[in-house]
C-alpha cells in the first residue's frame, strides 16, 4: 500500500510527520489522553509490570498494596485517570472512569485534566497528616461530597480501601462509584448519624463542596463533621474567596448586578450565597476569614492555602477544638 510517507519527497517527510504527531497529540490532549505514553517508559516499567502480574493473579488488594506504594503518585494517578490499555490486568482490576459528561458535570474536567489538582491536594493532605507523627496508611478517611470518587481513587495510593469512606447527598452518584469499582465504602448524609461513626475519622476532606452550600446547610454539615472526627483529626475543606464574584463578573457579565450584590454581602456578613435554581441549598458560596473566626467555634484553624491551577479553591486546614 502506498502511504503518505512513500509519496512525499524525503525533505518534507520529517516536518510533516512532526506536524501530524502534534495534531494527534493535541487531539489526544482534548480527549484527556496526552500522557499515556509515559506508562510505557523505562523508569517505572518494572514496577508496573509487577503490579500488572499481581492483578492478573487475583483481586486481593492486600497483595497489590506494596506494589501500589512503590509507584510515584503521578504514575498511579495516570493509571487511574487514563483509559489505558498498556497494562490490561491493571485496567481490568482498578476502578474505571465514568463517562466524560458525568465527570465534567461534577468537576468541570475530564480524565487526565484532573491530574494537576490531585497531584497537589493529595500530597498536601498527606504531608500535613503525617507532620504530627501519624502514618497516613493507618488513617480512617472520610470524603465529604465525594461525587464520582476522584479523590477516593487518588487517596487509595496511600490508604487501603477498607479505611476509605465516601459520603454524598446523591444516591445516583454513589451508584456510579459502585459501578466503576471505586475503592471505599459509600454513605448518604444520614449514615454519619449512626453511633459507630462517632469519633471514627482521623482524616476528613471536602473538596469543592463548601464552595457550593447555603449557610444553614454548611453549618449543619460542619456540626456533623465535629461529631465524627477524632479528637486529633485533620479536616481539609475548600471554600471560595471574595474574588470569586469578580471572576463571575468576567465569565457571566449578564448577571453583573447579582455578583456585585453578592460581593457586598460577602463584605458585610462574610458569607455570599446564591442558589443554582431559585432558593436552593446548593449553588455558589464565598466565605470570608472573619466569618470562619466568628462562626466555626468548634474548630481551630490551622492554616489556609490555595490549589495552584485552581486559585478559586482556598483550602482551610482545621482541627477540632
Ligand atoms: C462540585 S462536586 C465535587 C465532588 C468531589 N468532591 C470532587 O471534587 O471530585 C460537589 C459534590 O457535593 C455533593 N453535595 C452537595 N450537597 C451536599 C451535602 N449537603 N452533603 C454531602 N454532599 C453534598 C454533590 O452531590 C456533589 O457530588
Automatic annotation (TrEMBL):
InterPro entries: Methyltransf_12 (IPR013217), SAM-dependent_MTases_sf (IPR029063)
Highest taxon of the lineage: Bacteria
Residue intervals of the Methyltransferase type domain: 142-234
Family matches, as Pfam families: Methyltransf_12
The protein, known as: Methyltransferase type 12 domain-containing protein
Lineage: Bacteria, Pseudomonadati, Pseudomonadota, Alphaproteobacteria, Rhodospirillales
Amino acid at each position: 500500500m502506498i502511504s503518505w510517507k512513500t509519496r512525499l519527497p524525503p525533505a518534507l517527510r520529517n516536518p510533516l510527520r512532526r506536524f501530524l504527531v502534534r495534531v494527534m497529540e493535541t487531539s489526544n490532549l482534548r480527549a484527556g489522553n496526552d500522557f499515556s505514553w509515559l506508562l510505557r517508559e523505562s523508569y517505572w516499567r518494572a514496577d508496573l509490570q509487577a503490579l500488572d502480574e499481581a492483578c492478573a493473579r487475583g483481586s486481593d488488594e492486600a497483595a497489590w498494596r506494596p506494589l501500589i506504594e512503590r509507584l510515584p503518585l503521578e504514575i498511579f494517578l495516570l493509571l487511574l485517570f487514563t483509559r489505558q490499555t498498556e497494562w490490561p490486568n491493571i485496567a481490568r482490576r482498578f476502578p474505571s472512569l465514568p463517562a466524560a459528561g458525568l465527570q465534567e458535570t461534577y468537576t468541570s474536567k475530564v480524565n487526565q485534566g484532573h491530574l494537576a489538582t490531585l497531584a497537589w491536594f493529595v500530597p498536601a493532605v498527606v504531608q500535613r497528616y503525617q507532620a504530627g507523627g501519624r502514618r497516613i496508611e493507618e488513617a480512617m478517611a472520610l470524603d465529604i461530597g465525594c461525587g464520582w470518587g476522584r479523590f477516593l481513587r487518588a487517596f487509595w495510593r496511600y490508604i487501603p480501601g477498607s479505611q476509605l469512606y465516601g459520603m454524598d447527598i446523591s444516591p445516583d452518584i454513589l451508584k456510579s462509584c459502585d459501578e466503576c469499582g471505586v475503592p471505599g465504602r459509600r454513605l448518604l448524609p444520614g449514615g454519619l448519624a449512626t453511633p459507630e461513626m462517632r469519633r471514627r475519622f482521623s482524616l476528613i476532606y471536602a473538596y469543592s463542596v463548601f464552595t457550593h452550600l447555603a449557610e444553614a446547610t454548611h453549618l449543619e454539615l460542619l456540626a456533623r463533621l465535629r461529631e465524627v472526627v477524632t479528637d486529633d483529626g485533620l479536616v481539609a475543606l475548600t471554600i471560595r474567596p471574595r474574588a470569586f464574584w469578580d471572576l463571575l463578573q468576567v465569565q457571566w457579565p449578564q448577571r453583573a448586578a447579582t455578583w456585585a450584590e453578592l460581593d457586598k454581602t460577602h463584605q458585610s456578613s462574610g458569607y455570599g450565597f446564591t442558589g443554582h435554581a431559585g432558593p436552593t441549598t446548593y449553588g455558589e458560596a464565598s466565605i470570608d476569614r472573619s466569618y470562619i473566626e466568628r462562626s466555626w467555634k468548634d474548630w481551630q484553624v490551622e492554616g489556609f492555602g490555595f490549589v495552584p491551577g485552581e486559585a478559586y479553591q482556598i483550602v482551610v486546614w482545621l482541627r477540632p477544638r
